[in-house]
Design a protein that fits this description.
The complex is a heterodimer of chains A (474) and B (323).
Chain A (H helix, E strand, L loop, with lengths): L7 H11 L4 H10 L4 H9 L3 H4 L26 E5 L7 H15 L2 E4 L6 H13 L7 E5 L3 H4 L17 H7 E2 L2 E2 L2 E7 L1 E5 H6 L9 H14 L7 E4 L6 H13 L17 H13 L13 H9 L3 E6 L2 H6 L10 E4 L15 E7 L7 H11 L2 H11 L12 H6 L2 H4 L1 H7 L5 H4 L3 H17 L5 H18 L1
Parallel strand pairs in A: 1-2, 1-3, 8-9
Antiparallel strand pairs in A: 3-11, 4-5, 6-11, 7-9, 7-10
Helix pairs in contact in A: 1-2, 11-12, 11-21, 12-21, 21-22
Chain B lengths: L6 H4 L2 H14 L5 H35 L18 H8 L1 H33 L5 H8 L1 H4 L2 H11 L6 H8 L18 H26 L3 H9 L4 H29 L3 H7 L8 H11 L3 H30 L1
Helix pairs in contact in B: 4-15, 5-10, 5-12, 5-14, 8-13, 10-12, 12-15, 14-15
The chains are: A alpha/beta (474), B mainly alpha (323).
């Protein structure tokens, strides 16, 4: 689902590696990107490597920015089977992470790519855990899964050491005192907008409230009426987990709570949440395409990146794609935090996402697996992941790293959102029943958006009743 | 002593009949040879029995058993027997009934359209014309494409902004310029869009089975009716349709069962959206998204019973035909 294109630092690395640019230009561009001396050393060290190989089409090796941490144990003879990302564009980097660990410790690390869809992956892991299989020594788990896998996890709290992970993530990953996963990389919803269209229509900056967004999108869409493909606003409205993330942002930012509160009370049936859903419904078929009720991330990004959209809600991954060299909007867009609602308790809200490292209790190499999990979340590895893959680190200090900021200029501005301002889905109070809670919620919201459920009041009432039933079982 | 049968004897039907009689006489459990024969028989079917048991009977038994428990997928929770609770909750769930309604609409309309169109296609191909072989081959293309691919293909064709269907409709003046009609997202057309895709995909299958039925109708029946002065229309209703009926019924059984369990085509297009949710999607959501293995199994059992009843109904029709 998530795909990345090369970011500026990667591009520079590639050119340097291929020898297609002079050394002086490499240094100049590196300077413009604000790269540190060590980083420039790495890049220049590879200068012309491909040219010397007489194979100019070779790209820079994935994992080039990884520095292997010094404190790795000796694991000669141990074999680990690990599941990191999928087999898409991120696979070479994941493979490099495994290879460097294997090389440094003398172990063998088999990288098993997971499914692209998080739902499919959850199914696979649940079945593997249900069978108490020792085939898997470490796996990456979504931020909403700690409750589901707590009973199958090895406690990783002894691996934290002096690493200062974001408090929010540590709380989220701790179930009954057990640290189910080490925070690996994080994610939060963002508002993408077209600076040129805002300017043409005389708007000074991005919208501060959803109502403002609605009005601005309406005005802009009127001006673009000649372009039948144009949409004012796109988001993820399909009946899947992504809609839970979007709708939680609407209602939470409107002071409507977070569906199920931390103490387990079902709060979704309130006027502010319903008002937020009502506003969202008014977008469908007006500022948003009618088809938005079937959109997932990539469907909505297709409209946005085709230059046919004024506002777009997405995860940070879309930044590097929108800014890529072949993107038609690369110079005319910006990102900011999502708008706030109106009324009491209104605030800007971004749903928290991200992945954790998890060690199954059925692994026969638990100590080695723990060491691998800790290696992945080490500052060195997170830094490389941020530079090469634009994944958001879970350690605050990396948001001040010049090389990380050069590759992802927006990290600094939105630090607040990433570090703890983001809203968590109710996976902690609903524990292992979160899947059910989310299913009920996104089904109801999708029905409201598509008009299948005409009466918002009664649909939300039904939803609250179903959620009460589920929460009674927790 | 065990009788020896040579290859030469088997080749003669009369001998086989007499051998069978002898075998039947020997096969009684009373005699030693009979017991030996019976053991050999069991031994020979044992591999198939094991396979059937492992892949059909045991999973079915497990599904039945789980449907009376509150088992969850990969959960540390204690498993309890809950009796008919899962079934009670299932039948009280509005979503289930919406899914059932959608499934019935989908099944009836897609199977009916496929049968009619399949018949038309089969009759066309059955007649003599130039390039028949080419048409027969190209007709199979939609059936040969994997469902997920055809689903994605149609989702692009029906796309509100970039879709060829809207583009054609606008060019033909059937739709206003700049109108982006969302066939798949609009709740009043979504189910029909799904039916259309299924009809496009499965009509070739129907046509092929009907064609096989058409080809075994002897030509002299038509000649005789021609001599008697029957019109083409009469020939179709009085000869073709009754004679092709057994083949048609088999095709209908296959298609009805398949349509009732439809999952991939719709899931790719709409995931679990309520307006196109079928009973199979409902079951998948309960089993996987909610991890409620017990409740999901109850839904699966109900689907099993429904399909079982359908097959019974059809086989009744077939035996009545034969009688």
């Amino acid at each position: 689902m998530i795909r990345y294109l090369p970011n500026p630092v990667n591009e520079l690395m590639k050119e340097s590696f291929n020898g297609t640019m002079s050394r002086r230009d490499v240094i100049k561009r590196g300077g413009a990107l604000g790269l540190s001396a060590t980083m420039m050393g790495t890049i220049l060290g590879s200068y012309g490597a491909a040219a010397q190989d007489a194979s100019p089409s070779v790209e820079q090796p994935a994992g080039w920015s990884i520095t292997v941490p010094a404190d790795l144990p000796d694991l000669t003879g141990v074999t680990l089977n690990v599941q990191l990302g999928d087999d898409g564009v991120g696979a070479p980097f994941d493979q490099a992470c495994c290879d460097k660990f294997a090389e440094a410790t003398g172990s063998t690390v088999n990288f098993i790519p997971g499914a692209q869809s998080a739902t499919e992956r959850l199914t696979f892991l649940q079945q593997t855990m249900a069978a108490q299989s020792s085939d898997l020594d470490m796996a990456q788990i979504d931020i909403i899964w700690p409750g589901i896998f707590a009973s199958h996890a090895v406690d990783l709290s002894d691996q934290v050491g002096d690493l200062d992970f974001f408090e929010r993530l540590m709380e989220n990953n701790t179930v009954d005192g057990k640290l189910v996963g080490l925070p690996w990389f994080t994610d939060a919803g963002l508002l993408y907008y077209r600076t040129d269209l805002l300017e043409q229509n005389g708007f000074e900056g991005p919208p501060a409230t959803w109502q403002e967004l609605t009005d601005m999108a309406t005005t802009i869409a009127e001006g673009e009426a000649a372009n039948s493909a144009f949409a004012g606003f796109t988001f993820q409205g399909g009946a899947y987990e992504g809609l839970t993330c979007n709708a939680l942002e609407w209602q939470y930012s409107n002071g409507g709570g977070s569906i199920v509160e931390a103490d387990g009370t079902v709060s979704v049936n309130n006027d502010q949440a319903k008002a937020a859903l009502e506003l969202a419904r008014s977008w469908v078929g007006t500022i948003a395409p009618e088809a938005v009720t079937g959109y997932k991330e990539e469907d909505s990004r297709a409209v946005w990146q085709g230059g046919n959209c004024a506002f777009h809600r997405n995860w940070p991954y879309a930044y590097s794609l929108s800014a890529a060299a072949d993107s038609v909007i690369k110079d005319v867009f910006a990102i900011t935090q999502l708008p706030a609602g109106e009324g009491e308790g209104a605030t800007s809200a971004a749903t928290l996402g991200g992945w954790q490292t998890f060690v199954p209790a059925y692994s026969e190499n638990q100590d080695a697996a723990k060491a691998f999990a800790k290696y992945l979340v080490s500052p060195e590895l997170q830094r490389a992941r941020a530079i090469e893959r634009a994944n958001l680190p879970t350690l605050g200090s990396l948001y001040e790293d010049p090389d990380v900021l050069a590759a992802n200029p927006f990290f600094g501005e939105l630090f607040e959102t990433f570090s703890g301002g983001a809203v968590v889905r109710p996976s902690t109070p609903s524990a292992d029943l979160y899947g059910e809670v989310s299913l009920e919620y996104f089904t109801a919201v999708n029905e409201i958006l598509s008009g299948q459920a005409e009466d918002i009041n009664s649909r939300v009432e039904d939803l609250a009743a179903s959620l009460e039933d589920i929460m009674a079982d927790v | 002593m065990e009788p020896e049968i040579t290859a030469g004897e088997i080749a003669k039907p009369a001998v086989i009949v007499s051998e069978r009689k002898r075998f039947a006489a020997l096969a009684g459990p009373k005699t030693a040879v009979g017991r030996q024969q019976e053991r050999l028989g069991w031994l020979l079917v044992l591999p198939s029995l094991i396979v059937v048991f492992a892949v059909a009977i045991y999973p079915l038994y497990e599904t039945f058993r789980l449907s009376f428990t509150n088992t969850r997928l990969a959960s540390a929770r204690e498993v309890q027997n809950v009796g008919w609770e899962n079934y009670r909750r299932l039948l009280e769930d509005d979503q289930w009934w919406t899914a059932m309604r959608n499934t019935l609409i989908f099944t009836v309309s897609s199977v009916a359209l496929e049968a009619i169109l399949g018949m038309v296609v089969a009759l066309t191909i059955h007649s003599q014309f130039k390039g028949r072989g080419l048409v027969r081959t190209s007709m199979l293309v939609p059936w040969a494409i994997p469902t997920v691919v055809s689903s994605l293909l149609w989702s692009w064709m029906l796309h509100d902004r970039y879709g060829v269907i809207n583009s054609i409709a606008i060019r033909l003046g059937l739709m206003d310029e700049g109108r982006n009609f969302a066939w798949v997202a609009n709740t009043s057309t979504s189910l029909m869009a799904v039916v259309a895709i299924d009809v496009w995909k499965t009509t070739p299958f129907m046509a092929l089975l009907i064609l096989a039925g058409l080809q075994i109708i002897p030509g002299d029946v038509y000649e005789a009716s021609y001599v008697d002065g029957a019109s083409k229309w009469q020939q179709f209703w009085q000869i073709t349709l009754p004679l092709v009926k057994p083949a048609l019924l088999v095709a209908l059984i296959f298609r009805t069962m398949d349509s009732f369990r439809v999952f991939d085509l719709i899931y790719v297009l709409k995931q679990g959206a309520t307006d196109t949710m079928t009973v199979a999607i409902y079951t998948q959501q309960v089993l996987i998204q909610s991890s409620r293995l017990g409740a999901g199994s109850a839904a699966a059992v109900v689907i099993f019973v429904c399909i079982g009843l359908m097959v019974l109904g059809y086989s009744r029709l077939i035996t009545v035909e034969e009688g």
